[in-house]
Amino acid sequence: MHVRTFPAVLHKEEDISVAECPEVGTASQGFTREEALANLKEATELYLEEFPLPDVSRPFVTTFEATYAASIAESFG
Fold it and tell me: Fewer Cβ neighbours under 10 Å: the N or C end of the chain?
């Protein structure tokens, strides 16, 4: 059995939390971030049972900043 760490991206959609694993392409949801992450782990493990990842180098994940115009609501808020 192999253990590997994967990135997870979480965001809110109305009243649920959505969790996605961009490296594998899996996604899940839950009422809390913890539930969404637990569901993502389960979905990813099930996916990897059927579709193992090839043994290649890991992607480099980082962040960057971008400038954008504020919306009208933000300008007057």
Answer: N
Local confidence pLDDT in tens for the 77 residues of the chain: 788 899 999 999 999 999 999 999 999 999 999 999 999 999 999 999 999 988 877 778 888 999 988 776 555 55
Structural domains of the chain ordered from first start? 9-76 (3.30.160)
Beta bridge partners of 26: 21
- Give residue for tokens 């954008």: 68
Single pTM value for the model: 0.77
> Residues near 42 by Cβ (< 8 Å), separated by ≥ 6?
28
